[in-house]
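Exam revision sheet. Question 4 asks you to relate a sequence to its structure. Input first:
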Amino acid sequence: MTKLYFVRHAETRIDADAAPDRWELTDSAYGAVVKMFNGISTDSIDCIYYSPLQKASQTADIISNIYGIVKVERDCLKEAERHFPYVEHGTFTRYVDQYLSGHEDKNFERYNDVRERIVSCVTDILRESMGKSVMVVSHGIVITVLYRHLIGTALDPISWKTLKMPDLSVIDLDTGMVERGFYSGYRIRPLIKGKQ
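Answer key, structure tokens:
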């Protein structure tokens, strides 16, 4: 069976003086990643594709070091670009809720651009993997945008808040079902012809 493992990065140490793409993982990140993979077989995973942002690359490093899986950085897996400096959590949450509710927002990269980027990126990764199972490590907003597209329905704007740090979703590409983790039980649209 060909599977796509989607991982949201581990918890970050928020630094108001640094750009969010430079935030590093907390000291508890390693243990949280190990716990997340408890009961998950990684034997069939051929490669980890990851966002270049620090929190995703460090999460990919942990997984790669534990399970011996090769890593490949992909710029197209980065988070939706934000056009504002650090803001308090409540303000950030409000911005994201508005963005995911369909309001075009000068605070973020255009929603349609993000959707096209992430769908194209994952489709290209699956084509290149030639039927092998792969893992993708990315970010909460862009993952939510992708899953909204894959499921074909508007997930609740607050659904992104249900994603933990770290978190995992496993899609069986042969059946088209999200079989484990976040958004489990949903059937997805095919990403490449001939699958599902």
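Marking note for examiners. The first strand starts at residue 3 and ends at 8.
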